[in-house]
Amino acid sequence: MRADRLVAILLMLQQRGQVTAAQVAEELEISERTARRDLDALGMAGLPVYATRGRGGGWKLAGGGRTDLSGLTADEARALFLVAGPHPDATPEVRAALRKLVRALPEPLRDRAERAAASTVVDPAAWGRRPRPAAPALLATVQAAVIDAVQLRLDYVDRSGTATTRVVHPLGVVAKGSTWYLVAGTDAGRRTFRVDRMRDVAVLDEPADRPADFDLAEAWAEVVSAMDAHRAPVVATGWADPSILMPLDHVFGTRASIGAAGPDGRVSVAVRGHDAFVLAAELAGFGDRLDLEAPSEVRQQLASIGAQLVARYSPLGSGAPTGPTAGRKRSTGANSSAKRSKG
User: Fold this and answer.
1) The domain made up of 232-313 is a member of CATH 2.30.30
2) Which residues, other chains included, contact 146 with Cβ-Cβ below 8 Å and sequence gap of 6+?
3) pLDDT mean over 68-79
4) CATH tag, 139-229
């Protein structure tokens, strides 16, 4: 659920003591189904919100909640501000809601919540990197469709530049690094769409078909596994000296799998690459501390790379130097011979 709605619902609970899904839906201009899901999500997230059933039922705050916003403890209030306050993508609406929340908190919690919001800065740019782009313009609309469980019509451009229009059943949104994706059901099965490739989005009145057993985390794990296999289909296996395990992990990240140690102390490894040559080029720097057993294509590329390096850089190599410095080196050699003959 969105942080601005979370804060708004907490404020309603504090002011009224008890709310119904219909009241929340009317106040926030959302569907009753979304309101019920949001209210249930608050309780599942650990906030002291509980439901009472039957006539006169609704959602309440544990302990009454009128003087202590949602019964938040100091740790809970601080956690809320740490999550929503410093995030660089927080919208003006979220920040305004947080300011209202500060004013609504009881005095003992107010100072600590304000300090929590000011205690952390999130810098999304890695060292030597530019800041990641802001969230895509259509992300909020896509998220709302997921929450409201309604279909979307997408004007979409794929990686090859082909433009299509399609109707999808939104199931969830995922941020992978700085890129946002929509996981959705389609007539062709479950698909994943980059939000920044959506040129236009229309929210439809038709309800989305969401399988009862759908789990977004599990679905995304399947997507990542399939994409890893597609992007890096070549797998090399062998044995690594323990001293290179950390550099190996640094170079390959999730493309490297570390196995068990063998009798000689070396560790079994498997690494993925785009093709045999690129993978061999990445592995060549580990020298004889990495012993690959398969596939033969990568072993052959390593042997070829090794022979080329020996020919160019070894004092015993027979290969003539080439490149921009070759002429200079030969000229220097000729001058030296001339000097010796004059002497």
Assistant:
1) no
2) 170, 171, 172, 173, 182
3) 57
4) 2.30.30
